[in-house]
Amino acid sequence: MGVEYVSRVPRPPLDGLIDDLYYLEGAPPYARLTLPPSPSALLIVNLGAPFRIRAGIDIETAEYADGCVVTMPTRAFEFGYPPETRSVGVHFKPWGPAPFLPMPAAELCDRPVTVEQVWGRPAIAELRDRLATAAGPDEMLTLLEEELMRRLCETAGLGLVRHTSSVIAATSGAVAIGDLSVAAGVSSTHLAQRFKELIGVTPKRLARTYRFTATVFAIDPAGPIDWGDLAGGAGYFDQAHFGHEFRAFTGLTPTRYVEVRRRFLREHPGHALDGWPLPAD
User: Fold this and answer.
1) 124, 67 Cβ separation under 8 angstroms
2) For residue 1, is pLDDT > 70?
3) Which UniProt keyword terms apply here (predicted)?
4) How distant is the alpha carbon of residue 195 from its chain centre?
C-alpha cells in the first residue's frame, strides 16, 4: 500500500497562522525519517499505532500515542513510524501555534510534547473519537479546522511577530536583524522576547532557518551542483561557513545530504513525502 495524502489551506483567519491541514494514511517510505529544522511548526493528531520522535542525537527517543506538538525546531528530529500510519495534522507558520498554546513557545523549543499536554486528555480523546468516525479525509480536515477555530484566541504581540517574520521570510533570511526592530519601533530586546514567547526562537535564528531552507530547496539533487556558487548566492561567507551550517541543521555534509536525497528519489519516485524528510535508516 502507498500513502494517501490530502491537504488544504484553512479558511481565514486560520490561513494567517497555518500553511495547510493534512491527512496522511499508509505505509511510510522508511521506518525512520529525519526532518531537518525548517521555519514551520507541527501538530499531529495520531489515529493509528504510536510513533516515536528523537529530538536530537543527545535526546532519548519518546513515544507518542495521541499525537504531538512541535514548535519551530533548531535541530533535526528523527521520526520513527509503525508499518502503517494514520493521522491528521497541521503545518503551522512559525508563529502559528502561539494562539493555541497554554505556555510560551520557548518552553517547547526542541521539546515535542503530546497533544494531551497542550489541550488536556478529555479534549484530545473526544477529538480523536470524532476523527476516527468521520466519513473520510475531507470531513476529518473540516473537524480539525472547526476545533482550531474554536480554540483560536487573541495573543499579545502576535501582529508584531507575524509582520517581522514575514519580512524575514520575504528576504529568505537575508535581512539585517537590527533594522527589523527599528522598522517595528521597538527595542531589539523586546522583539527578541516576543519571538521567544510566540515562536520559541530569536529573529536571528528564524532568519538563519529561512536562509538554510531556501538554499536547500535551490538544490537540484538530480543534476550537478556547484557548492561554491550555491553558498555565495545564499549569502554565506564561504563554502566552509555553508558546510558548517549544513551540518548544524541536518547532521550531514552537503555531499552526504545529496546522496541521501538521491536515494529517496530513486527508491520512492514521486512520493507524497518527498522534498524535506530524509531516510534515517
Assistant:
1) yes
2) no
3) DNA-binding, Transcription, Transcription regulation
4) 16
23/147 same-domain check: yes
Tell me the residue range of the domain where 18 lies: 3-151
Q: In 3-state terms, what secondary structure has residue 154? A: coil
* Alpha-carbon span 183 to 75, nearest angstrom: 30
* pTM confidence score: 0.95
- In this prediction, residues 234-241 reach a mean pLDDT of 86
Measured distance CA(53)–CA(35) in Å, rounded: 10
Omega before 102 cis (within 30°)?
no
80 and 167 inside one domain: no
What is residue 275's predicted lDDT score, i.e. its pLDDT?
80
Q: What pLDDT, on the 0 to 100 scale, is given for residue 264?
A: 93
CA dist., res. 134 & res. 123, Å (int)? 17
CATH of the domain at 275: 1.10.10.60
- Type of residue found at 247: R
